[in-house]
Amino acid sequence: MTDKTVISKKISPVVIVFLGLLAAIAPLSTDMYLPALPSMTDNFNVSSSMVQLTLTGSLVGMAVGQLFAGPLSDIFGRKPPLIASMLIFSLATAGCFLSDSIYPFLCFRLLQGFFGGAGIVIARAVVRDIASGPELMKLFSMLMLVNGLAPVAAPVIGGQILRFFSWRGVFALLFIIAVGLTVGSLIFKETLKTTGKGGLKKSLIMYRILMRDTYFMGHCIMQCFAFAAFFAYIAGSSFLFQNVYHLSAQAYSYLFGINGIGLWLTGLLISRLAGHAEDWKILRCALILAFAGSIVLFLGLFFQVSVVFIAVVLFVTVSTLSAMGASSFSLAMAAHGKAAGGAAALIGFFSLVSGGLMAPLVGIAGSYTAM
């Protein structure tokens, strides 16, 4: 390891919160409107699979956006592309609010995702700029702690907004958050001291080098499958609990928020274990637990067990994602400090594309079946 390690204790908590919010764009722009998906189906007069496609539009946009934002941030620094992306993300969010049919809404969701992806990849690249080794694992875990609050708060907030407003109220709040992130991007101090040389073409060549790194690609493919499962849960859970188990939008938002607390607690545990337990051991334990939980969940849905049992199994299974994400990211990024933007973009691309493809698939059989 040749990169200089920066001790995370020297990093301002404000910076950690800001980076956490940037990395939380995905859960903020997806989880907050999950309780509204069934009502949006009626409002737009379309199928559940069509509404779930709005998740796909956002996730695919984020995935592709990261592929461009990562190399650009390696060339021009983290700040300029971040400012531009957050500004356009704000405008796209306003477009979602103003949409009166599903098709313009889909287009704005795609734009929202594309430019929101820059926040995700740049936040991760900044973490690699300022830390390495065990400190990288610790700092990324702290980032996941802040990020973990989003899936806790977002659906609960969305559910409460629906008590007084339509789904448009959710996107009004998202617009306010987006404007706040834009202002934060203007204040943010550059962390990449030496920008890349040779232009975008040379930076894009780095993708070919990364994709020949079998160890790095192993982590990308692993996260591809893990996030496919996670976004299947995100896309289908509102229909499962509201249409099959007959919970209200507010009750569902609380249940979804509890699972977010599980993610947050796991992130807290991993931040404590950083430097004391080897990353690969943490990753192995998380994957084994997630695999076992997924099997139990499948059997529970097949035999139509109670909602309490399903909720408990989901809590355990979903909570493993923080441990998997932090440990896998740390291991994958360890040898790629000079191309942190591109490496973080590839990891994000694989996870979000798989999630985007999965979202509409869970609605093919209809919105009234758990299987």
Task: Characterize the structure shown.
The protein is an all-alpha fold and 371 residues long. The chain has helices at residues 13-23, 25-31, 37-44, 48-76, 79-98, 102-130, 134-164, 168-187, 199-211, 214-244, 249-273, 279-302, 307-333, 340-361. Helix 1 (13-23) packs antiparallel against helix 6. The longest helix has 31 residues, at 134-164. The chain starts with 12 loop residues before the first helix and ends in a 10-residue tail after the last helix.
Helix/strand order: HHHHHHHHHHHHHH
Rg, rounded, reads 20 Å
Mean pLDDT comes to 82
Helix-strand makeup class: mainly alpha
What overall form do the CA principal axes indicate? globular
Strand content: under 5%
The termini sit apart by: 47 Å
**Helix percentage:** over 70%
Helix count?
14
Tell me about the largest β-sheet: none
Spans of at least 5 consecutive residues with low confidence:
1-9
What's the total count of β strands?
0
